[in-house]
Amino acid sequence: MNRNYFDEMDLFYSRIGKFIGDRPEVISELDQKLAFFAPLEMPDKDKRMLVLDWFIFDSKSKVPKDNLLEVFLRETDLNEETRQLYTKFRYGKFSLFEVKAVKMGKGMLLIDLLDLQEHQVFDVSASKAVQKGQCGLFRMLPFEDYFILTGVFNDGFTYHCKKYA
């Protein structure tokens, strides 16, 4: 099946947002985690997206005592196809990447600077916001038979690797 990743990710964040919104104790914990990131010099909207992304995929919540994605998958009524797609998100990768090549409006080739693996990523939005030679902390998520990126894509969060090499 060929799903539109824009629509599917909007639906995913809408569903998990409602899931979080129905749990005041989780919202409180998320607010505490956001305060930790307050010193970051980036727009508040980007900061909130970064923290939400981290909270969903990486953090182990104190309240449900598990990773939020795991709890969401256990407790949310999803059709089997959607559950399989979201379950693959467990195998996402958060790392420091360098942009090796960009096909504007289509995707990019990234190299993970920690393990030197190359990854082909198909992401229209991100490919318009980055350029060859930039580095950034990105999360790749498996989506059907390719990868997409989540996170923040702006000049304040990506850096030209060549400056620091």
If you had to describe this structure to a student in words, what would you say it looks like?
The protein is α+β, with helices and mostly antiparallel strands. The protein contains seven helices and six strands; from the N terminus they run αααααβββαβββα. The chain folds into two domains: 5-89, no CATH class; 92-164, OB fold (Dihydrolipoamide Acetyltransferase, E2P), CATH 2.40.50. It has helices at residues 5-21, 24-36, 44-57, 68-75, 80-88, 124-129, 161-164; strands at 93-103, 107-112, 118-122, 134-143, 146-150, 158-160. Strands 1, 2, 3, 4, 5 and 6 form a six-stranded antiparallel beta sheet that branches. The radius of gyration is 16 Å and the shape is globular.
Strands, helices and their partners?
Blueprint: H1 5-21, H2 24-36, H3 44-57, H4 68-75, H5 80-88, E1 93-103, E2 107-112, E3 118-122, H6 124-129, E4 134-143, E5 146-150, E6 158-160, H7 161-164
Antiparallel strand pairs: 1-2, 1-4, 2-3, 4-5, 4-6
Short structural description:
This protein is of the alpha+beta class and 165 residues long.
Task: Using brief descriptors, characterize the structure shown.
165 residues; globular; OB fold (Dihydrolipoamide Acetyltransferase, E2P); 7 helices; six-stranded antiparallel beta sheet; alpha+beta
- Extended strand count: 6
- Percent range for helical residues? 40-55%
Question: What is the string of helix and strand elements?
Answer: HHHHHEEEHEEEH
Rounded to an integer in angstroms, the radius of gyration calculated over CA atoms is 16 Å
Sheet having the most strands: 6 strands, antiparallel
Our measurement of the CA-to-CA distance between the termini, rounded to an integer number of angstroms, reads 42 Å
Overall pLDDT metric: 86
User: Given the C-alpha coordinates, what overall shape results?
Assistant: globular
Contiguous uncertain segments of 5+ residues = none
What is the strand content? 15-25%
Given helix and strand content, the structural type is: alpha+beta
Domain count: the total is 2
Instruction: Figure out the total of helices.
Output: 7
